[in-house]
Amino acid sequence: MFPPPAEVAAPARRVISIERAGAIFEIILCSGFPTQLLLIAGLRACGMDLEGTEGGLNPRFVFTVSLLDAVLVVGLVVMFLHARGESARDVLLGRVRLLKEAFVGIALIPVVFMVVIAILAIVLTYAPQLHNVTRNPLEDMMRNRTDAAIFAVVVLIAGGVREEVQRGFIVHRFGQYLGGGIVGVLFYSVLFGLGHYEQGYDAALSTAALGALWGLVYLRRGSIVAPMVSHAGFNLAQILKYVALR
User: Fold this and answer.
1) CB of 153 within 8 A of CB of 222?
2) How far apart are CA 204 and CA 210, in angstroms?
């Protein structure tokens, strides 16, 4: 006697549930929060001070955590993709012409600035209370040109590379198991904005909008290259502006 169809279908539903739980677990680990907490605890245990001698965060501590976290997160993403039999190149870089995608990313940089300017203008006009931080605290860590140069490397790697690898991976996992790529873009955009709240509510809002923009570009083009170049270029332009105006 063969079992009824309902009994045959039950194991497949269990597999899907397990895969969804696994995807959520992978997203949490690759979100950056667990790895950063681990690194902060480890570096402090090794004697590195979280705060600088002049007060505030120690730039060397922040730089070290950011770079090591980039290595950990990218490594986890590649490991999780390979564990499911997926190609990291196909998922993240896509089957595209990389040089063309890089040019698309460069072309997006002015768009990114326009988005930020538009959001900040709207906030200052209609909700000025959201501009609750007058000076970006990250600027206080760039006390000289050496710090600025180190920070430029950090924003290129930890910002442009790590965050876009995270975004591409999370959007990809949402597209497979958790409601679709658009849901993933919205989820990570909120997370991305919250990760910048110390720079002000308006900065968090504009950052979330940029995250949505870069996420949609990844969905449209199937590659993180254009968002990565755009993100890194935007971050680097911010550093150059700080150095020029200092």
Assistant:
1) no
2) 10
- Tell which residue, 236, 194, 189, has the closest CA to residue 209: 189
Domain ranges of the chain: 5-245
- Output the pLDDT for position 59: 79
Q: Which band of pLDDT confidence, cut at 50, 70 and 90, is reported for residue 6?
A: very low
Cβ atoms 176, 86 nearer than 8 A: no
Cβ-contact 136, 242 below 8 angstroms: no
Rounded CA-CA distance 183/171 in Å is 8
Percent of the chain with pLDDT over 90: 64
- DSSP 8-state class, residue 152: H
Alpha helices (runs of H) in the chain, residue ranges in sequence order: 5-30, 33-45, 59-83, 88, 98-126, 145-154, 164-177, 181-194, 201-221, 225-245
**Cα–Cα separations (whole angstroms), residue 18 to 22, 71, 97, 113, 135:** 6, 28, 36, 42, 46
**Does pLDDT of 246 surpass 80?**
no
Q: What gap in Å lies between CA 180 and CA 199, rounded to an integer?
A: 30
Q: Contact 206/108 with Cβ under 8 angstroms?
A: no
